[in-house]
Amino acid sequence: DSDLSMRTLSTPSPALIFPPTSPGFQNGRGSSTSSSSVTGETVAMVHSPPPTCLTHPLIRLAAKQQKEQAHVDRLPDHSMIHIFSFLPTNQLCRCARVCRRWYNLAWDPRLWRTIRLTGETINVDRALKVLTRRLCQDTPNVCLMLETVIVSGCRRLTDRGLYTIAQCCPELRRLEVSGCYNISNEAVFDVVSLCPNLEHLDVSGCSKVTCISLTREASIKLSPLHGKQISIRYLDMTDCFVLEDEGLHTIAAHCTQLTHLYLRRCVRITDEGLRYLMIYCTSIKELSVSDCRFVSDFGMREIAKLESRLRYLSIAHCGRITDVGIRYIAKYCSKLRYLNARGCEGITDHGVEYLAKNCTKLKSLDIGKCPLVSDTGLEFLALNCFNLKRLSLKSCESITGQGLQIVAANCFDLQMLNVQDCEVSVDALRFVKRHCKRCIIEHTNPAFF
Question: Which Gene3D superfamilies match (predicted)?
């Protein structure tokens, strides 16, 4: 760490991404370094490193006394860097303005593997431009250390900001832009084309994104093997409402290494889209199609082709799924650990029986709002799924205290039980608590506490 003091101090650093009413910019020198207080917008401020000394004797004396009282300055460099590693990007930039030593430490490359910006008012496009420019100081136009960019909820992010990331961050491995509804397909295509190591992509809530693919130029350059060049393994497209089967086909053909895929509330997806998915993406371990109302038992037959690789499946509120679809999953996906089937009103005790007898390693099950599941189904669970840790039976009208007692007597590792809006007695809840001491019970019975 001895070479930290040799870093160039003349390079301006992006300081805290200040809100327009920040007291540091209302008067004095602070107001002369910023023009954003006039426009009222929040941007990444650019500042030179702090001065080495203060000229006025009284100020020097006060600074000396303050320095003597600052025990944090006695920490070695490696300890300071470790502390700084827990700070978000804007706070790290604030620390860079404290003194010369903190400036050097705050810009240590080890602290800049991740950029994390949040807030609806941040001019995130400009912030990314300023930050990447500073990080490209030692390697012009290329930021080799940056691996993760998280700008979730920054609604002012546009394609320009993603272009900056794509051009400057070839080593990017993780990108999260959830809730940034101004970005389009073209910008996402640029990122996946110019960042070949990208493995984790979260575009949930980005309503303009309809698929994931390489740019046309990249496709031509990498043809005919370009379909296997996108290394994305984790893809979250929750609330991408305009995603259709054709878009899912494109995603599957280009992202063949997918292991985690979340399509919650992608309401236009049908069984045909799932068929495309299973043709190309045979390594999926976690899949969510919750609230995809056009997915039916035929889609479950396609998903069952994942066989023992599938560990997590969410089909909540898919009203067209019945015991037939559950039977496909239970027969072929024997290593399933998590199943969310809340609101699938076509599931009965027979479906739960198939599931319990074939997926004995099940740890988490949500069958809330399934009115046809009764104590009989719970008995099958209790006698086969001894490793069950989480069970949700919310609004299951046919469940009684007797079924809960059977579960509690056999599933000792139960840690969470949801029986809200169920007609169960206080004695049954006390029985569960007595046998499953670590279990947290969510209920609506005012007599049990």
Answer: Ribonuclease Inhibitor
